[in-house]
Write a structure and sequence with these properties.
Rossmann fold; mainly alpha
Length: about 170
């Protein structure tokens, strides 16, 4: 089916209560970013995330907030009878974290770990006074030059949730 581009009507701006327009994209831009990395265990994803963090900080002036999913998984280990402790080898630690993460995805939801990441990002914003209304975090997020780096995602539903929540920031 062929469509004549000239025949398409241009949408008329919808007026917002604040007097702005939903078509006024420049008024809606924010310098905040959300990046998430994915890769197999031992593939160097953390190194890549650190390189992005450094480049965005040094070259573009971003303040970074790194959210390591493994740090969010580890506290669940003891409750699941799989504690994460210093006695584990690197390989055992990785395998145990994967088992715990898989259990959480199976028993909670496939995007449960990203819900924890989103909560961590929101708490970080509150700590940095990144919401209208101050540290109470009651208003919309303030446009700050921040990058939130999620190290790392493992399931397509995790990426979908980040896209649903952060839209084009992700």
């Amino acid at each position: 089916m062929s469509v004549n581009v000239k025949s398409l009507r241009r949408p008329t701006p919808t007026t917002l209560p604040q007097g702005g327009s939903v078509l006024n994209v420049s008024a809606r831009r924010t310098p905040e970013l959300v990046l998430a990395f994915v890769g197999a265990a031992g593939s160097g994803v953390t190194g890549v995330a650190k390189a992005f963090e450094k480049a965005l900080s040094e070259k573009f002036g971003y303040t970074s907030n790194v959210v390591k999913v493994s740090d969010l998984i580890a506290p669940f280990g003891a409750a699941l009878g799989k504690p994460i402790d210093a006695s584990l080898s690197r390989a055992e630690r990785i395998e145990r974290l994967q088992d715990i993460g898989n259990s959480l995805r199976k028993n909670q939801s496939s995007d449960h770990l990203m819900k924890l990441c989103i909560e961590r990002i929101a708490k970080w914003r509150v700590e940095k006074d990144g919401y209208h209304g101050g540290a109470g975090g009651l208003g919309a997020a303030l446009p700050k030059r921040w990058v939130h780096i999620v190290d790392e995602i493992k399931h397509p539903d995790e990426a979908r949730l980040l896209r649903d929540v952060y839209g084009d920031l992700f």
